[in-house]
Structures are given as structure tokens and as C-alpha cells.
Amino acid sequence: MLTQEDLRITSLGPRKLLSPLRHLREGPRSFVPDDRRVMYHIEYCGDEIVNPLGFEKAGPREQLYFDPAECRAAIVTCGGLCPGLNNIIRNLYYKLHGDYGVPTILGIRNGYLGLNPELGREPFPLTDSVVEQIHHQGGTILGTSRGPQDARVMVDYLESLGVNLFFPIGGDGTQKGAHLIAQEIERRGLKIAVVGVPKTIDNDIKFCYRSFGYLSAVSEAETVIDRAHVEAKSTPRGVGLVKLMGREAGFIAAAATIASGEVNFTLIPEAPFSLDELLPAIGRRLDKRDHAVIVVAEGAGQDLIDHEQGRDKSGNRKLGDIGPFLKQAITDHFNEVGKPAAVKYFDPSYYIRSVQANAADSLLCEMFARCAAHAALAGKTDLFIGLWNNRPVHVPLRVSVGQVKRMEPARDLWSAVLATTGQEKW
Ligand SMILES: Nc1ncnc2c1ncn2[C@@H]1O[C@H](COP(=O)(O)OP(=O)(O)OP(=O)(O)O)[C@@H](O)[C@H]1O
Ligand SMILES: O=P(O)(O)OC[C@H]1O[C@](O)(CO)[C@@H](O)[C@@H]1O
């Protein structure tokens, strides 16, 4: 259970400088339509908390800490690609520059690498023409990277750039890095707000019910499963085998299974399985219906594969390739029992995460970016924008760091998978 102390949001100081309403009336934004000013008024939500855990609700504050006209913002995108990164960049730009009037928004290139001036390329200023069309593209116009950088070096650089609003967009690794940066800023007594936006197609960030990009990736995955189903049905004893991303959590595999409705076996990292049980179960399905569709998350069945243990640059564990392993195991097994199966293997891999955001994710991105801008200008720091009880909330980074979200086999989503596939367990 989280305590009040856990949930306390760090603030750079008392908020009294400017009210957004006053600022919008007086500010130099001739292109802000009048109705946006009204929207601010309606949107204003104060420091209300959202139960049951007690997160503070995200959104505009009555008073700002920073004078937007004197601010400099920087955005960085880190880790793997995710649909919606460009939407976040674009919406942050429009909110900060277009609505609040922050004069300069810098794009940091290639993740935290771009905050090390010895190694990275120089940041560039975002402009209307730079961001105008980017939400139609997958990826991130800023580039990304994995691998650690020294928080002291990054803070030195942010300070030298004159940045006081900093937005790290990334997964749990990025948010851990953001927390170290925020702590270093606090140690030095600097006035730089650090407000993260959680990103991952894997949807495994704690206190964020749905991360942006997840549903776009699921949609793409569903298309591949449907193709695998067509292949499997078109040949005697056909097996469509689809490997999907999901290093530690099976949310993509589970949701794509349910969306497709054509999967017979779903295998996820959170539910260990044995070949002794799985292969005969596939056999029973083939005897009955002559085809089977299997979805496996890349982190599933790792205990079955002999592979080199190791870590990537960011410290994420390296996985053995479960797809070809399963393909071989299924092929060998049915050859051995004298009833060969035709296994068609699909590995959509990066394909599902390099697409542009779908409508649902575009909406989420707009909300996350808007809330991040409000929080930073209000002087809130060392937090990310989460989604809790269907509301955007402020999640202190010290609370989220080290916490992970996993599918719980006893919960609804997994029950829905079992009901959809008809598989007995796993
Ligand atoms: N514990 C940590 N402390 C400081 N920085 C970290 C930490 N873990 C990861 N990072 C840094 O954060 C950045 C992104 O981390 P990582 O590559 O793990 O991606 P991620 O943000 O977790 O996203 P994804 O979901 O794509 O894996 C990298 O530059 C990495 O070095
Ligand atoms: O090959 P990369 O870029 O390290 O990314 C792979 C990983 O990224 C993720 O999609 C998370 O973003 C994992 O599911 C996957 O293992």
C-alpha cells in the first residue's frame, strides 16, 4: 500500500507566479483561439486526488510556477520505438509553445545519448513546420537509443542549454534515468521540472493502466494473427505460429489474441508451460479441427531454450529466440508421432511498433502530452503522467522506479484469453 509520503509530488516551489487564464489573455499567442481559453477554465482541476491509491489528478493548475515566456523546454525519446512518440512530441510542442507561449522547445537527439555533448549530436529547435505532419509517421523524429549516461553530465548539459522544463519520453528504464536526473537537479538546487511520459508497446509500466502505442501495436499484431490463421486453415494439419514482442509481459499477446478471436494457444512470460503438455494439446486440436493458431510472446518459455545469458546496453536481459525453437519442436514432435504438421511461422517483430499511432493512441498521446505540459509549468517535478482509474494522474518517479506491471494469470485479461482460445491452461 502506498503512503501519503510515497504519493507526495515534489514541487519546485510555491505556485504563485501566473495564472494560466491571466497569462492566456495577456500572452503573445495571437493564434490561440478564444475557445481554448474557455477550455482552460473548464479543464482546471486543482490538486485533487484520485482514489483508491490516492494519486494526484493531472491537468491544468490554477497557478503556474514558471513564467512560460522565460522557459526553455527539452524533449527526449529513449528506448525502443513505440507508435505515438511523434504525437507526444507534436502535442507537447503545441501545448507548450502554441498555448502557453514557451518560446523554445528543443528536441534532444537519440535519447539520453543526446544529453552527453561528448557523444551525442546537438539538439535542434522544434518549429511549426517541423512538427506539423509528424503524427502521420511512425518512429520518433528525435531518434532514440539505449545505454546509460551519467546523470551529472546530463544535468550539466541541460543547465548549459538553459532548459527548465524537461520531458523524458520512454519506458521504465527511461523513467529510472529521469528519476536520477531529477535527484541530481534537486541536489544542485536547480529549477528544472522533470516530467516523464511513459512509453511502451509492452504496456508493462506500473501505475499506467494503458501506455500509448500499446493498442496500435496490438492492432498490427491482430492483422498478422489473421494472416497466420488463413495460412493454417489452407493446408492439412496447418499450424500458424506467431511470435510477438513482450520481453517480460504478455499484454500484447493477450490483447491481440482476444481481438483476433482466432488463436488456440497463447503463451506468455508470466505463465510457464511445458512442451510435454503443450505438444499433445496441439495434437488434439489438429486431430479435431485440422489447423491451429499459436501466439507466443518473445519472453515466454525462456527456461526451455539453451541460450547465451546476457544483458543489452540498457541492462535488459537478452532473450533466447522462442519462435524458431517452438517451430522446430512442433515440427519434430508431429514427425515423430507420424502425423506431420505444416508449421507457418510469422515473426512480425519491429513491424508492429514502427507504425503510426491509431486513433485510440493518438487521443491518449494528446492527453498525456497536455498533462505533462501543465504539470511542468506548475513546477511539479520528478513524476510521470500515469493513467489510473481511467484518469491521467501524477505518479512520483520514486514510487514507480523498480516497480513493474505484469499480467496476473488470476485476473480478467488472462481469463478472457483462456476463454477465447479454449486452451486448458498456461
Ligand atoms: N536504472 C537506470 N538508471 C539510469 N538510466 C537507466 C536505467 N535503466 C535504463 N536507463 C536508461 O534509460 C534509457 C532507456 O532505457 P531502456 O533502453 O531500458 O528503454 P525503456 O525506457 O525501458 O523502454 P523500452 O520499453 O523500449 O525498453 C537508456 O538510455 C538506459 O540506459
Ligand atoms: O531490439 P530492441 O530495439 O532492443 O527492442 C526490443 C524490445 O523492445 C520492446 O518492444 C519494448 O519496447 C520489447 O518487447 C522488445 O524485446
Radius of gyration: 23 Å
Low-confidence stretches: 21-44
The SS-based structural class is: alpha/beta
- Count of DSSP-assigned helices: 14
User: Mean pLDDT score, rounded?
Assistant: 90
Query: For the report, how would you describe the main beta sheet?
Result: 9 strands, mixed
Please tell me about this protein's structure:
- Helices cover 38% and strands 16% of the residues.
- The chain has helices at residues 4-7, 20-26, 34-43, 85-100, 128-131, 151-161, 172-188, 214-233, 251-260, 275-289, 322-336, 359-377, 397-400, 412-421, and strands spanning 10-11, 49-50, 55-57, 72-77, 104-107, 124-125, 165-170, 193-198, 238-244, 265-267, 291-297, 342-346, 380-381, 383-388, 391-396.
- The chain has 426 residues and is an alpha/beta fold.
- The longest helix has 20 residues, at 214-233.
- The protein has 14 helices and 15 strands.
- Helix 6 packs across helix 7 (172-188).
- It is elongated and about 75 Å long.
- It has 2 domains: 10-211 and 357-400, Rossmann fold; 215-354, Rossmann fold.
- It has a 9-stranded mixed beta sheet with strand order 2-3-15-14-8-7-4-5-6, with helices on both faces.
- Strand 7, helix 7 (172-188) and strand 8 (193-198) form a beta-alpha-beta unit.
Layout: helices, strands, pairs:
Blueprint: H1 4-7, E1 10-11, H2 20-26, H3 34-43, E2 49-50, E3 55-57, E4 72-77, H4 85-100, E5 104-107, E6 124-125, H5 128-131, H6 151-161, E7 165-170, H7 172-188, E8 193-198, H8 214-233, E9 238-244, H9 251-260, E10 265-267, H10 275-289, E11 291-297, H11 322-336, E12 342-346, H12 359-377, E13 380-381, E14 383-388, E15 391-396, H13 397-400, H14 412-421
Parallel strand pairs: 4-5, 4-7, 7-8, 8-14, 9-11, 9-12, 10-11
Antiparallel strand pairs: 1-13, 2-3, 3-15, 5-6, 14-15
